Amino acid sequence: MQASDIDAIYAAFMPLQIAKVADHAAPIPHSLEVVEQIRSRGIKIGSCSGYPRQVMDVLIAAAADYGYRPDYVVATDDLAQGGRPAPFMALKNVIELGVTDVRACVKVDDALPGIEEGHNAGMWTVGLLLSGNEAGLTLEEYQHADDQTLQAARERAQAKLQQAKPHYLIDTVADLPAVLAQIEQRLLAGERP
């Protein structure tokens, strides 16, 4: 396969992705409540996406219809320096959100390159085990899974994400507020990521 073949596949795929991304924009269960809780504490929400801007523009609008509006969004092709696992997208969020201490930032991700991005940016990192791609479950499968299936998915995701050595691993974003409280205490004690 040559570069021109890859470019042709990408060109054929992109219109399909743009047409379908809004069909999959429903927020992860409990995410809207978690975001509201986090924001009530004065924490800003930045987003780094592996999607290119033309896909993100559709997804941002669709997510807003559900009530999810991050404070800033960086798409993978927004920066000439490139995307994950380099720190540039995360740091662009830091700049645009006016954050003065990167060590107080938390990068939450469901993929190995995203966790690496957080480390490379000097942030705390949190890996999502069950509400992400590495679990290998659709939302419907997750909602109807028995304990054994969930444990197998959790172990699959943990094996992958643990390679990046996240500071925390949690099942879903519903578990994030407790982790943020722990990080806040660690910061007050002088710890850094």
TrEMBL record:
Belongs to the HAD-like hydrolase superfamily. PhnX family. It catalyses: phosphonoacetaldehyde + H2O = acetaldehyde + phosphate + H(+). Keywords: Hydrolase, Magnesium, Metal-binding. It comes from Vibrio cholerae. InterPro entries: HAD-like_hydrolase_sf, HAD-like_sf, HAD-SF_hydro_IA, HAD_sf, Phosphonoacetald_hydro. Binds 1 Mg(2+) ion per subunit. It comes from the Bacteria. GO terms for biological process: DNA repair; organic phosphonate catabolic process. Its EC number is 3.11.1.1. Its cofactor is Mg(2+). Mg(2+) binds at D110. The keyword Hydrolase applies. GO terms for cellular component: cytosol. Homodimer. Involved in phosphonate degradation. This is Phosphonoacetaldehyde hydrolase. GO terms for molecular function: magnesium ion binding; phosphoglycolate phosphatase activity; phosphonoacetaldehyde hydrolase activity.
